[in-house]
Amino acid sequence: MSGQWGFTTSRPTDARYGDDVAKYAMSHGEPGLKTFVREVLQNSNDARLDNDQPARVTFKLESLQGDEAIEYLRALDIETWAEHANLASDTESGKHIAEAIKRIKDDEKIRILTIEDENTEGLLGEENADESNFTALVRDVLFSSKSGDTAGGSYGLGKAVLWLYSGLSLVMFNSTLSEPNPKDQSPRLIGRTRLPTHKSEDGDTVYQGHGWYGGLNGDEEGARPESIWGEEAESIAEDLQLSRPDGPGTSIQVVDFRVPTAEERLDDEELADQITEMAIEWFWPAIYRGDLEVAVEVEGESKQASIDEYPQYEPFTNCLDDRDDSVSELDESGDVAQAAISLDVPEKSDGSGGADGQLGLLVRRANTGEYQHRNEVAFVRGAGMVVEYYDRDRVVVGNQDFHAVLLGGRARPWGTDESPQDADTIVEEFLTAAEPPQHDEWVRTETLANTYSRGFRTAVEGIKSDVTETLRGFVAPDVDRGTTGPQRLGNRFKIGNESRGGRSDRESPSSQRVTGDTNISFDDVYTHWSFNGEVEPLSDRNEIRAVTVSLIRMAEERATSDRLPVQNISSDTAGVSISLPEQNDVQVGRLEPAPGTSKISFEGVSIEDHRQVETRLKVSVDVAERRDE
After folding, report:
1. Region entry Disordered: which residue ranges (predicted)?
2. How far is CA 415 from CA 272, 313, 338, 378, in A?
């Protein structure tokens, strides 16, 4: 028993397709492994059955060689498929597929990746239904059965990664349905390939490019093969290394799996490690809550994706663990504080919806040594996937590094005994509409514009600024907003305030008694700041008594009370005494010239600065009337 390939025919006057448009949409931006892992896990997580069990997803990597590969390709009816693929090789996409075919022949080896999920709905729906799991995942392009709800995906684009990551643009499906089918019995097996439009060898027949692996009813030219069911499907699945465990779910097999932008093909072990870490990086919320389990299997050996093995994500889960014990100020490492951020969702264009919603911000002060994802905010909503890690390193003052989680929609009450409210559901739907096809940020989208009334732009674009302002209250409460601090009246002035290669030529704003040039820039080779300057009194009647150089950290363009120690300072002005005293426990540079000095130049460097936070130069100059010689 075997399935066979059939390709949909079209008229010569119909539009031709050089490739799949949806594949190109999903390859925009981040076509690495990250996109693939996010999309396939999101699909399985969205299809989880409504029970207390998690969706279980196993990535199975196999490289078939020799007789095993030959038997596999025979079961795949590869000869029929290859006839069509070779006819499509006059397009760019077709050339890449032809190259993949040659590589497989030369190597006598083919890699397959099977994503097997359990406790999910399976490919429900009739073969020609208008809307179902089956038609959305297998048949249709840019249709989603999730449209209008608050699941992870809603564009119908994410599934395109399955064909994008197949060197042959060929994907097989085997599914056990969660609900009985009135006519057929699980499992359900079908295959789909997306080739460019091509003509038959004699040129008389035009094939649209979409091919199907399944069972044909009759010999009609261009008829679409349909799903194979029951024992026959089970037998073919075994030959295709696509057998399933008992229980509902779907197994998806990506034939000749590859990473489109990789410089070289990674071996199976390297791929497995990357998939495991990315599953944790982007789905730790769903895994932490017990909604999702992920494993990766290579040559029969399985490894569970565990947050415990990736401690860099524990600060985020600690935010949820310690939410009930939150504090008002982050005094100690490990302290967790929380705040509510308002999100006013406007009504929809039809007058429905609209709510005075809230987002929950949890901030945890970092421990020493927690470097990864430090000073980042994980944006999460009810789908359980991290939408984005928002870098807020510039907000931090001193050593108050942090990790934070922004919980939106149905995720807002996570970590408490509360249940989501009606307003949370409205916010969830709003945030879903604010995600582009890659679901990697909350921004103004066409879906928002088409669905919501005036005010949606202000709402979505205000989220990040509100997060930043709220963070400042926790990690930058003592920001120096430009005051100069105590001065010796009438004779101390600071000059120079430019950074990263900028220059200044400023006079004292109050007295016109000092002028000069200063310059500071970051040295990537030595990972420190380099600075230099020259100062002099404006009046010939005055002389310089001392110059003090300090380095000030910046946060969001504002000076802070945080200082970076000066490592070294020197001067080519004759008779200058140099020292490195401490001011408020931070080392500064100090220059004390000989009596009568009217101009002094200097240069120096900071200690190593791996944070590379924006830093400015502060030069305080003591001037006085010239002393008698």
Report:
1. 179-207, 477-518
2. 31, 16, 11, 15
